[in-house]
Amino acid sequence: xxxxxxxxxxxxxxxxxxxxxxxxxxxxxxxxxxxxxxxxxxxxxxxxxxxxxxxxxxxxxxxxxxxxxxxxxxxxxxxxxxxxxxxxxxxxxxxxxxxxxxxxxxxxxxxxxxxxxxxxxxxxxxxxxxxxxxxxxxxxxxxxxxxxxxxxxxxxxxxxxxxxxxxxxxxxxxxxxx
Length: 178
Description:
Helices cover 29% and strands 20% of the residues. It has 178 residues and is α/β, with parallel strands linked by helices. Strands 3-2-4-1-5-6 form a 6-stranded mixed sheet, sandwiched between helices.
């Protein structure tokens, strides 16, 4: 883990595309071939971005676990920091924005960057809330939604995760590798 930083970095990742079918429970839906292809494109973006993570929080749904398994090799691991801690969190399954924010706000103090892999509409609602603030009108008009395998980068100038507030966060970018 890194030293405590005055800037916290949050990555939100919507899982890749999953199989459909009446014979599947929603939480048990695996990635389909399109989802695996999305992960390959996302992996290329992640390698280029050289993201350093302290913590990964994942929904327990099969498609989220499989998305993580497909991209984990692209996450930058430095000898000093070691691999990020990974937690599979039941409460992230189909969580709304307030539950997602709760998960972020309870990150350990020594964590400076977190990747949260979850579902829509919660992830899209957080992204839209950041875009709907004054000064983001141009970006808001071009935002058509958060497709599968899209990655959102957010920063918060705070030393305590409990103080992370969407009204004070900065949207750094959205990557949709489709």
